[in-house]
Amino acid sequence: LNKGGQTIATSDMLKIPPTPDQTVGSYLNNYSISMWVYVNPHSPNVDAYNKESVIMNYGFTDANGVQHVKPMLRYYGGGVNDQPIERNKYVFYFSKYPPTNQYVTEQDTFYDVTIPNQKWNHIVFNYTNNHADVFINGILERSFSMVNAMPTYNDLDTITIGEENGLDGGVANVVYYRHPLSEDQIAFL
């Protein structure tokens, strides 16, 4: 996670291939991304831990600096003045980063949760048209309606892992499925 943003897929890999009568493939809006994540916690004095650091990002950045994500997973170790309950959070973004209309219930497209550190955790994102689900260790953690904040797909989309001077940890077995996974399939993984 600290080796720089490693691109593991490009938009050409993520598109539906064109049919013989088409010249360009189309974007999937029903898919799943599965991965295993391992993070070693550190003191908030370590730069990557006193801010949100990237674990995984599927998306692109527009000319205004807004990241159009589908999804993005970040980790916040906690600032020096944060209470313990505010530290060691995994933050999930489902449409844009930074999010707009934060904390407006119908429009929230991000979610934070505490997941055990120093162990491998299985995370699955299911995207189905205007709906996103996140599963953690086989259990549905949260569902989001994307009606007011639909993800934007673009030829600049990539899936990247980590960032320069990022977290101490790793990501393994990142798999992009061209369909949402069922709860049974997720439990089997």
What does the secondary structure layout of this molecule look like, with pairings?
Layout: E1 6-10, H1 11-14, E2 30-39, E3 52-61, E4 67-76, E5 89-93, E6 96-97, E7 110-113, E8 121-128, E9 131-136, E10 139-145, E11 158-161, E12 169-177, H2 183-188
Antiparallel strand pairs: 1-11, 2-8, 2-12, 3-4, 3-11, 4-5, 4-6, 5-7, 8-9, 9-10
Could you provide a short overview of the structure?
By secondary structure, this protein is mainly beta. The chain has helices at residues 11-14, 183-188, and strands at 6-10, 30-39, 52-61, 67-76, 89-93, 96-97, 110-113, 121-128, 131-136, 139-145, 158-161, 169-177.
Task: Explain how this protein is built.
- This protein has 189 residues and is mainly beta.
- 5% of the residues lie in helices and 42% in strands.
- It is built from two helices and twelve strands, in the order βαβββββββββββα.
- The protein has helices spanning 11-14, 183-188; strands at 6-10, 30-39, 52-61, 67-76, 89-93, 96-97, 110-113, 121-128, 131-136, 139-145, 158-161, 169-177.
- The strands form two sheets. Strands 1, 3, 4, 5, 6, 7 and 11 form a seven-stranded antiparallel sheet that branches. The protein has a five-stranded antiparallel sheet with strand order 10-9-8-2-12.
- It is globular and about 60 Å long.
- The two termini are 22 Å apart.
- The mean pLDDT is 86.
